[in-house]
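Lab meeting, action items carried over

1. Structure of the two-component assembly. Owner: GW. Status: complete.
Input record:
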Amino acid sequence: MSLASIEWGAKPRKALGSPLLGRLVVDIPLLLTLIVIVVFGLVVLYSAVGEDAGRVVRQGMRAALGFAAFFVMAQIPPRYLRIWSPWLYCVVLGLLLAVAVEGEISQGAQRWLDLGIVRFQPSELMKLAAPMMVAWYLHDRTLPPSFPHLIALGLIIFVPAILIAEQPDLGTALLVVSAGGLVVLLSGITVRLILGVAALALAFAPLLWMTMLDYQRQRVLTFLNPESDPLGAGYNIIQSKIAIGSGHLFGKGWLNGSQAHLEFLPERSTDFIFAVLAEEFGMFGAATLLVLYLVLVGRGLYIASQAQDTFTRLLAGSLSLTFFVYVFVNAGMVSGLLPVVGVPLPFVSAGGTSMVTLMGGFGILAAVHGHRKLLPA
Amino acid sequence: MAKRSHTLKDHWREQRLFLSRIIAAAVIVLLLTSVLIGRLVQLQVVDYQRFSELSQDNRLRIEPLAPTRGLIFDRNGLIVAENLPTWQLVAIPEQIADLDAVLSELEALGLLDPAERGPLVDLIRSHRGFERVKLRNLSETEAARFAVRRHLFPGIDIQEGLVRYYPFGPVSAHAIGYVGSISSSDLERIDRRNYAATSHIGKTGVERTYEDVLHGRVGYRQQVVNAQGRVLLDPAEEEAPDASAAGLETRWPEPGRNVVLSLDMRLQLAAHEALGSDRGAAVVIDPSNGDVLALVSTPAFDPNRLAAGLSRSDYSALMADPDKPLFNRALAGRYPPGSTIKPFLGLAALQHETKAEHDHVYCPGFFRLPNNTHRYRDWRPQGHGNVDLHDAIVLSCDVYFYDLAVGLGIDHIAAALSAFGFGPPTGIDINGEIGGVVPSREWKRQQFQRPEDKVWFPGETVIAGIGQGYTLATPLQLAHATAVLASRGARYRPRLLIAEESFEGGMSYREPDELPRVNADERHWQVVHKAMVDVTQAPRGTGRTPMLGAEYVVAGKTGTAQVLGIAQDAKYDANQIDERHRDHGLFIAYAPAEAPRIAVAVVVENGGGGASAAAPVARKIMDAYFATQPRGVVEDYVAREH
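Predicted assembly:
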């Protein structure tokens, strides 16, 4: 409600007359696709958790929370997001530091900040805060950005990413980097610069390798040769490939996946749920889900192309493409194309935090589209 | 605003640029999606047949294969840790329908201890479904009892396994340590995959420190099993020649590497038996390279019982024993060094020229600081009369060293002792070592909280002269410092591991780790050396009696450390006070005096004087070294005890 009053504060005449619902911003194509994916996800999850209805209900409640985030974010005019961006970024960065310090004290992996009532992962919020900050930084500057600005943008992206990678949560760090980096790419930097940065990244790869923890290195090595580690991470990949491969065209049928139900597939309700889907619904089921994801990405890119200012354009483009990174990294990892990094399958993997931030991201997309000023044709 | 039109002009360019980027991104998204779809086609259409076979009727099971743990030898090639075959009771979690029921039945058969139920359930739950979880080692009869009922227990099996065995049992327990079941805290410091088939891990001593050398690398074999878990195809079986054709792989484990220790079991055994039922410790070091020839702490424990798995109550009893058999006194026992500190301080005073060799001090039986009535007593109430440094060491005159300490000053004392390796841990290559204390003004400032406690008092310097007060040293530190005396300044980091099997198969020997020398004039070393020889040779030497009849010459120093403060006019009477408050006896020595080959330190807790309690232990160790004991004792011990 306070958001609404801020919005109306600028336009006192409207505030008196129109009820909230009258101005409700909803993007119907996004909403419908999201609903279809979430329902499909719950159906798959029911099988993946061994027909445990309780866990499906809990996931349904998380989805409801996600839709609430979608609706709330859709109502906020993007210019407020722009104004809040630096503050949001600083607060989330502060939280990340707090988690790092706390983790230093307890000497273990620390991702959660305990606020008494709720525990949440600040790193998750960074997936939204980082691209917003980068878009804010670029919104009133001449594009494409010059080299000194690129340095500043690099700091904005990599400081939180390194903090998150230290937690250690390589998957989330990767998504933060790609969310921020995609904004920079979309801002129109030259192809030559992109290639230059890529070369630089390659040069820094050994450094990254040295800072990685043993288990992270092991995952990369296992990815390069899964059979070298059939007892550890390679086991997951071998089993998920068997699950996917045995699904054939139309799958073994819902609740009939032997790999999943004989508990041979690890992490089948979270990161590896795509294998359950592919086993039980076959290639067509898996491809259908990918197409649904493509619809979301396509709608997002369309919204970005129609956006009216630099900030919303960059943010919308980055959010859409980051969403695709999620999909590609998860599906690629489960099918053995990419190393195993902890990235969930959007809206399908059990878990609450990514559900809420992703839905919030789509809420922002809806807002970008719904709060446009109509220009004369 | 002039800037506005400028921005507006860029605006269109920016939008065009942005649009081109969005289109490029859309193309890439479509390409990557086709890659995903292509991968699905590859897995689900092209390779469908293979994956379908793997999943529908058969399942691929990976059985980890445990590496054999490396053996441990003493310096003469005697085995001090090996692996013996045994029967193990194992569980395969995925094949057990009702875990509680199965465990109850096993308990009813007397094969499991009901008190262990909780930890066992946790252990089983923490493993993957297909991993074989070792429950415990079985005796022959227990294995037979289970074997006849095996069909009643799906998911429970017996398998041949190896159990760690220490032929010398308690004798080597504190040096070699022991292996025990992997605990959750162990899991945090190991690579879990490498331990997929391993049930035991080094807990203390050499077993723990050289875990990575001894353990080896896990292997595995792939088996094809049906839905009930029955093995259909096992590449390890002779009758499965087509295993490799089915794409099944076996990788044999890499056994752990053998290691050779510096320990000489003759000395280890002699020290252990000489200490007998006393609480105490003995450490023997080779002054020429830092090799630890013996490292004994008593009472000890039987590492074989720990390796086989103690029951909860037995373990609690071991932990609750007031004599603390699990406590490694040689590495972590901190004792006031008492008079054994005197040779080191004597050398320091000569070097700093606060005392010359023939400076005399009159000893009336007590010492007083100027303008102070407090009497610091000599151990000999009637005093020693006029003594110089040589006499003061031979007779262990306290008053001389009170005077020496005051002249030298606490900071020089601290520096001199630190140079000999007192204070921080020596850095021996097994863990569990704790450093001692070398007090100084700086140390006191850091150690205490209240400002009035941070001040250094002159009286504290006085008693530091006889190794009392705050000064603490471990038996290992004493042996190390004695080795430095023996070699006249050369210092080597004490070490237990001298060689390990290289990956090629031969033994690779490690170089001694040389530390900064202690520098002193040769004639000063000689004064101290001569005095320590006379401790055991001169008619009035405090260490003469225990060394009578030795075929070699020993340079030594006795020490007695007070456990209880004695009031100003009270008299110490061993019979009147509780045994636990009696003095600790200490003795340091090196031999042969003319060309030292071993340095020894012995501490006997509450044993009374150093000459009566500790020196006889050192004598027996040195006798063993110089082979005045009959040969073959070590072999006899193993034959007798096991």
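2. GW to write a short summary for the group page. Key points so far: Chain A has 15 helices and two strands. Confidence is low (pLDDT under 50) at residues 1-21 of chain A.
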